[in-house]
Write a structure and sequence with these properties.
Helix content: 25-40%
Number of helices: 10
Structural class: alpha/beta
Order of helices and strands: EHEHEHEHEHEEHEEEHEEHEEEHH
Radius of gyration: 21 Å
Largest sheet: 7 strands, parallel
Distance between the termini: 41 Å
Bound molecules: NADP nicotinamide-adenine-dinucleotide phosphate, ligand F7E
């Protein structure tokens, strides 16, 4: 696998086996939100960290740069749609732990690109698993499963045993990748675990996701902008945690003697409009909500400025109305607990965007 020009490169594409002591990990999706935080965590634990980067006109390394770790990781060109990319990577870069975080991760886009989403999020995973089983069956594997698999929820709260009912091409593809990971574990004895992660956010969250769209929009308004944030369904409820806490859970899953599947969640669910209010408070705004449906608006009591409007362009063909997770298994078996609550998260993101807008 050829390292990219922008990254600290290995001189030979074949990387020797890890020396005794330090572990080596590979992260697909290392340029994304979770990939960057996981790379930071593994580096702090003394791992040698390798990651996959997609060929783009402009390499997507901003998050790794923000965390100050771009020069501490080794990047390899990798697209999950290309079987031979994965084959050469696994052959040339032996690792102890393989974290599959790459995905077309935006649920809204999955209705516009259902086949591409299914290929990356579904088939991409079985490509990795089959190459690992063939070339490196001892490698421990993590699959990024999601609360979106619960969709139209069949129980409240949702735990590992709750039946899945996906509501989007994204969710359906993730159900396939979840079950194929379980199947490879059961069929071939692989150390393969799925983290069923509920929404987790951070200042590095992509700007199309609702939390970051809100905090960036509020930061602009607090800095004098006058464009209200256009949002879709304000009543959907999510169980939001901090991405930095959740990557710790991923790592803990792969340190267990026995592979398993784990929900990571805070256990608290919050409507979108309350997240807006929490983020606004952190920027010294106090919101009044008025109206219903398409006419609902939020206004800042102190400045009188309109802050939120509803725009049906952001409604989805099918919605996931309520998510709230039960992370008891992760608490008991992994000793994992989230440290940041939703108010703290909204404030952290709003203040980071406010500073960046300066
Ligand atoms: P993200 O910020 O969107 O990152 C996704 C990563 O996947 C990026 O590095 C992206 O590369 C890469 N990627 C996309 N398509 C690819 C392809 N065809 N081949 C190789 N790489 C590709 O997502 P995230 O929030 O960090 O989420 C990480 C994983 O957890 C995803 O699998 C997501 O579905 C899952 N998940 C996320 C959450 C959450 O709340 N964040 C919850 C549950 C599960 P580029 O930088 O080039 O775009
Ligand atoms: O939407 C509503 C929208 O796009 C959350 C991904 O990381 O978490 C994420 O998926 C809710 C939905 O995240 C807007 O209808 C209202 O009900 O931030 P989101 P998501 O769909 O929950 C899961 C766990 C993943 O696995 C995914 O990879 O917010 N909403 N108005 C809006 N959403 C967006 N994006 N934009 C709006 O204007």
């Amino acid at each position: 696998m050829t390292p990219t020009a922008t990254a600290p490169a290995v001189s030979d594409p074949t990387v020797p086996a890890p020396s005794s002591g330090g572990k080596r990990a590979f992260i697909t999706g290392i340029t994304g939100q979770d990939g960057a935080y996981l790379a930071l965590l593994l580096l702090s634990k003394g791992y040698e960290v390798h990651g996959g980067i997609r060929r783009n006109a402009q390499p997507e390394t901003a998050r790794l740069e923000t965390l100050g770790i771009l020069d501490q990781v080794t990047l390899h060109n990798l697209d999950l749609c290309e079987m031979t990319n994965i084959f050469r990577l696994v052959q040339d870069v032996p690792v102890d732990e393989f974290y599959n975080l790459a995905a077309q991760s935006f649920v809204g886009a999955s209705w516009d690109q259902p086949i591409y989403t299914s290929d990356v999020n579904g088939m991409g995973v079985v490509r990795i698993l089959d190459v690992l089983r063939t070339l490196a069956p001892e490698t421990r594997f993590y699959q990024a499963s999601t609360s979106e698999m619960f969709g139209l929820v069949q129980a409240v709260p949702q735990a590992e045993s709750t039946p899945f009912y996906p509501r989007s091409p994204y969710g359906a593809a993730k159900v396939f990748s979840h079950y194929i990971t379980v199947n490879y574990r059961e069929s071939f004895g692989m150390h393969a675990s799925c983290g069923i992660l509920f929404n987790h956010e951070s200042p590095l969250r992509g700007e199309e996701f609702v939390t970051r769209k809100i905090t960036k929009g509020l930061a602009k308004i607090a800095r004098g902008g006058n464009a209200p944030i256009q949002l879709g369904n304000l009543s959907a409820r999510r169980d939001w945690g901090f991405a930095g806490d959740y990557v710790e859970g991923m790592w803990r899953m792969l340190q267990q003697d026995t592979p398993d599947d784990y929900v990571l969640a805070t256990g608290v669910t919050t409507p979108i409009r309350d997240f807006v209010s929490f983020a606004a408070e952190a920027l010294d705004m106090a919101l009044d909500w008025e109206g219903e449906g398409l006419d609902e608006v939020a206004t800042d009591r102190r400045s009188g400025r309109r802050v939120v409007e509803v725009n049906p362009a952001f409604f989805r063909p099918a919605e996931v109305d309520l998510l709230v997770g039960d992370a008891a298994r992760a608490r008991t078996k992994l000793g994992w607990r989230p440290r940041v609550d939703v108010r703290g998260l909204a404030g952290m993101m709003a203040r980071a965007d406010y500073d960046a807008v300066a």
